[in-house]
Amino acid sequence: MPEDRLRTPEVDELLRALLVLEDPEEAYALLQDLCTIKEIRDMAQRLHVARLLASGEHYAQIRELTGASATTISRVSKALNYGADGYRTVLGRLDSGEGR
Fold it and tell me: How does pLDDT run across 34-65, given as a tens digit for each residue?
């Protein structure tokens, strides 16, 4: 199973590290140390694409608004509709004001 390959002690440690962050500045600092700027921007773009898809925007409009490729939009759509519900959980919490 793909999720079994994801669940490793190292990934568990990463998740614990993310969960102990106390504010956006700490999150920026950790992301900057862990990822390239392109990786951070790519993840941010995918979350933006997920938000637009969840709100009913069409692929062409999303591509125009975000600059995301059709492949990226399709992958995000697949994850949004058939994935582990990570996007939906985060978007719901952000929309309800749970995000800091």
Answer: 999 999 999 999 999 999 999 999 999 999 99
What is the number of residues in the chain?
Answer: 100
- Ordered by start, the domain boundaries in the chain are 1-34, 36-100
In 3D space, the residue among 49, 37, 50 whose CA is nearest the CA of residue 84 turns out to be 50
Task: Say how far apart CA 86 and CA 38 lie, in whole Å.
Answer: 21
CA pair distance 63, 74, nearest whole angstrom: 11
How far apart are alpha carbons 19 and 9 in whole angstroms? 15
**CATH of span 36-100:** 1.10.1270.10
pTM value is 0.89
The closest alpha carbon to 41, from 52, 28, 54, 51, belongs to 28
